[in-house]
Amino acid sequence: MEISSNRPVYIDYLLMTIGTCFMAVAINSIYDPISMVTGGFTGIAIIVKAYSNIPLWLTNIMLNIPVFLIGARIKGFRFIARTLYSTAALSIWLYVLPTMNIMTEDYILAAIFGGVISGIGIGMVFLARATTGGTDMVAAFLQHYLKHYSIAQILQLIDALVVLAGAYIFGLNRALYAIISIFVVSQVTDGIIEGLKFSKLAYIITNHQDEVANAIMTVMERGATGLHATGMYSSLEKKVIMCVVSKKEIVQVKEIVTQIDPNAFVIVSDVREVLGEGFMEYKFNK
Question: Could you tell me which Pfam families the record lists for this protein (predicted)?
């Protein structure tokens, strides 16, 4: 049995097209007008434009050309095909979209909304199993030789150097706001990729495990799993009930447990995404 995506290929390219449009709006209309450098090749392009008036789209293309040539030679064309499309789409959007100063001089709004818009765009590109090239690919190439470091670590270092360059040229104040924007981008991107349908995971330690489990399964119509555990202090073996419910249902779980066993020990944690019956369905192609 082979696992594959049921999503048509054109949907991926649509995601890349729309996602790069969002990114270009953030760059052209928020970051560039107030010289906020948030890392990446677009950050370098903002710095270059400040000294030479070379447009962002042209710098982005010129920086990516050698990166893609190296990528095609090391990894093969199939590895860079989607990323090549998304990089080209971003450069085209940077060229055709007008430059407007949406946030004027309000740096905190620029950092937050720029991060949200850019994060949505990057998340859509990642959902299409692509990137926009730039420092992502540079980090991947360097990791080929610096195997003791992860791609994420190398990427963070490269982007940090770009932000520091922006701080040197445009001032520390803008760089600090850029860090806020980078944080917002990462949070929004993670939400897009990992899903926004948060659930709750509950571990219930009780001496009335059968009653609690039955109540959860019959009253709430939710599944429950018994995990074998041993108390390290008492050396007694017991079952820990594990169940996953929606955010609204966790209140009912705690009420059920409290009614049956007020002395029960309950651990509740956040779950980013749940696949399976009763939650997000997934399919296999046979």
Answer: DUF2179, YitT_membrane
